Structure formats: structure tokens, C-alpha cells
What does this fold into?
Amino acid sequence: MIILCILFFSLVPKKSLGAVDPYFQACSARKTCGDGQAIRFPFYIQDKQNSSCGYPGFNLSCNNNGHPTILISNNNYTIHEIFYQNETLRVSNSAFSNPNSSCIPFINSISLPGSRFDLAPNQTNIFFFYNCSSSVHESWPSEFYPSCYGESDTVLALSGQDPKLQISNVSMECKSSVVAPVEAYGGGIGESLRNGFVLKWKASNCSICEDSGGNCGFDSTIYHFKCFCLDRPHAWDCTNTTLHEYLPGQFFSQEISLSFW
Ligand SMILES: *[C@@H]1O[C@H](CO)[C@@H](O)[C@H](O)[C@H]1NC(C)=O
Ligand SMILES: *[C@@H]1O[C@H](CO)[C@@H](O)[C@H](O)[C@H]1NC(C)=O
Ligand SMILES: *[C@@H]1O[C@H](CO)[C@@H](O)[C@H](O)[C@H]1NC(C)=O
Ligand SMILES: *[C@@H]1O[C@H](CO)[C@@H](O)[C@H](O)[C@H]1NC(C)=O
Ligand SMILES: *[C@@H]1O[C@H](CO)[C@@H](O)[C@H](O)[C@H]1NC(C)=O
Ligand SMILES: *[C@@H]1O[C@H](CO)[C@@H](O)[C@H](O)[C@H]1NC(C)=O
Ligand SMILES: *[C@@H]1O[C@H](CO)[C@@H](O)[C@H](O)[C@H]1NC(C)=O
Ligand SMILES: *[C@@H]1O[C@H](CO)[C@@H](O)[C@H](O)[C@H]1NC(C)=O
Ligand SMILES: *[C@@H]1O[C@H](CO)[C@@H](O)[C@H](O)[C@H]1NC(C)=O
Ligand SMILES: *[C@@H]1O[C@H](CO)[C@@H](O)[C@H](O)[C@H]1NC(C)=O
It folds into this structure.
């Protein structure tokens, strides 16, 4: 009976004691990197917010300009704007961020689709060709830009719509090529690259929890979405109060003990 009592009291929500759930509290604080943009679920600033407040893989850092950055296929992307209502964000490769430099850095292609992000519809591409033969140089000298990695090197940059891409020997005549998505091609290569492109993210939809007064989060021990409410963590929203909403595992041992007794 003593064991049963202990179990019983461990199951009584902390609400009855008037305590606010620590996860609810931790995830109530809205943070920004300095640019004014509120960072919330599924994103979290890993040095400023508890990882339980975001979804795995949506950890952000802040750069020196006060913008959030995210690592995608081991490259830093600067986040310009997050559209929570349609789960999209506009990013650009941080290597393109310096508005004063007119050189093209060597970048890696972004590898999408992945488990976290897909490219949003209606994006276009810019193709970079590195180490091209002199015959390509002579054909289209105005399409070459200085490179950032070697003073004498130049990079061929073509928009995805450029008919020159159809000429098959461009890729043959250059040693490597990279594709960079852009939202729109206009105002010059540098501006298009700095403006970036739009991604759609894949994580739990937060609105059911948020609309019920909760803070969305994630329980890494059961690897599942959690809705942190004033009283305690719930499975999806703050309204349901039965034990059965808990996923198998969390109160498994207690449930077994109770039914045994
Ligand atoms: C997140 O917050 C919870 C509740 O306050 C705390 O127990 C946990 O240690 C925190 N985790 C990190 C990584 O700060
Ligand atoms: C990404 O940016 C962060 C913050 O600016 C920096 O600490 C980190 O070294 C960068 N990582 C890579 C792979 O460039
Ligand atoms: C996010 O977390 C991963 C794994 O811990 C880490 O490698 C990466 O650098 C973090 N991303 C950012 C933008 O800090
Ligand atoms: C999230 O769920 C709400 C309510 O079910 C719905 O109205 C909304 O469209 C969903 N958001 C997205 C981006 O799917
Ligand atoms: C998402 O919402 C923003 C702001 O309302 C809008 O500008 C943008 O076009 C939308 N994106 C998509 C892919 O629907
Ligand atoms: C760009 O150049 C301007 C004027 O020379 C300078 O004030 C600014 O700090 C530079 N910005 C960066 C990012 O280097
Ligand atoms: C994509 O472009 C087409 C044609 O311009 C347009 O009809 C459609 O609404 C666009 N889709 C999005 C998500 O912006
Ligand atoms: C260009 O070629 C040089 C010499 O072969 C090589 O060292 C360099 O890595 C190449 N650069 C690129 C971006 O492929
Ligand atoms: C492509 O190949 C043809 C035939 O080999 C050659 O005449 C032409 O100059 C090449 N074009 C470029 C841009 O190298
Ligand atoms: C919450 O409980 C109500 C009534 O029992 C039920 O209809 C609803 O589906 C539950 N919601 C979730 C997210 O479990």
C-alpha cells in the first residue's frame, strides 16, 4: 500500500500544488538573435534556448550581424525571414553574405530534399562552373566573375534559364560545377544570391498546442512532439487530461504497477 501511495502521488499533476511546469516556463521565453525576428518552435537558438523547445535538427546559431544561421549539409545558411504560418523560411548561403565583395566563393551544392527541408515551389537556379578552359572564357567573357579563392581564377555563373547551359560542352570544358537555388534571378548575380531562396520545413504542426495555450516542444527521451502546458507536458494540446494521452513508455511502469495492485 505504501508503494501504491507513492505511485499515486507521483501521478497527481503538479497543478494541484500550484507549480508551473518548468518546460512550459523554459519555452515561454521568446528569443531573437538581435534582428528582431522571434525564434520559436520548431526552431531554437541553441545557446539561448532549451533544446526541448525545438524540433531536432532545427537548432540555430546567431552570427555577428544578429541574424540566425542554420547548418544544412554542413554549410551555414543565414536565415532572413521565417514564415511560421506556411512553414517556410528564406535563407542564403552565408558565404554570399558580404555585400561589399564582388567575388564568388567556392560553395558546395545544397543537398535537398532531406528529412528537414524541401525546396519551396517556384525557385530557380544559378549554375557555377569552376576551372573552365580558355575556350569557354573566350566565348563568353562577360559571364565570368572573379573568384574569392584565387586571385587569377574566375567563375562562370549562368542562370538556370540561360540557353548557354544547353550547349553540352560547358560542363565538359570546366572542372567542377555547383548549383545554387535562388528565389528569383534579377538585379544581378550577387543580389540574387544574397536574397537567397525559400525552403519548406517538415516538423510537427504546432498550432493545435499553441491555440490551447501551450508551448510546443520535443521530448528526446521518447523522441516525440510534446505540448508543454502550465500544469505539465501533454501529448498534443493542453485540453486533454487523461493519462491515456501519454505515449507508451512514459508512464508504462506506473501503469503496470497500478493494474497489478
Ligand atoms: C531544459 O529545461 C528542463 C526543465 O527546466 C531542464 O530539466 C533541462 O535540464 C533543460 N535542458 C537543457 C539542455 O538546458
Ligand atoms: C557556422 O557559423 C557559426 C556561427 O557564425 C560558426 O561558429 C561555425 O563555425 C560555422 N560553421 C561552418 C561549418 O561554417
Ligand atoms: C546543430 O546541432 C548539430 C549537432 O549537435 C551541430 O553539429 C550543428 O553545428 C548545430 N547547428 C548550428 C547552426 O549551430
Ligand atoms: C496546422 O494545423 C492547423 C490546424 O489544424 C491548420 O489550420 C494549419 O493549416 C496547419 N498548418 C500547416 C502549415 O499545415
Ligand atoms: C508564405 O507566407 C508569406 C507571408 O504571408 C508569403 O509571402 C509567401 O509567399 C508564402 N510562401 C509560400 C510558399 O506559400
Ligand atoms: C562595406 O563597406 C562599407 C564602406 O566601405 C563599410 O562601412 C561596411 O562596413 C562594409 N561591410 C562589410 C560587411 O564589410
Ligand atoms: C508559382 O508560379 C506560378 C506561375 O507563376 C503561380 O501560378 C503559382 O501560384 C506559384 N506558386 C507559388 C507557391 O508561389
Ligand atoms: C581548380 O584547379 C586547380 C588546379 O588544378 C585546383 O587546385 C583547384 O582546386 C580547382 N578549383 C576548383 C574550384 O575546382
Ligand atoms: C564546344 O565544342 C565545339 C566543337 O568541339 C567547339 O567548336 C566550341 O568552341 C565549344 N564551345 C565552347 C564554349 O567551348
Ligand atoms: C482530446 O479529447 C477529446 C475528447 O475526449 C477528443 O475528441 C480529442 O480527439 C482529443 N485530442 C487529442 C489531440 O488527443
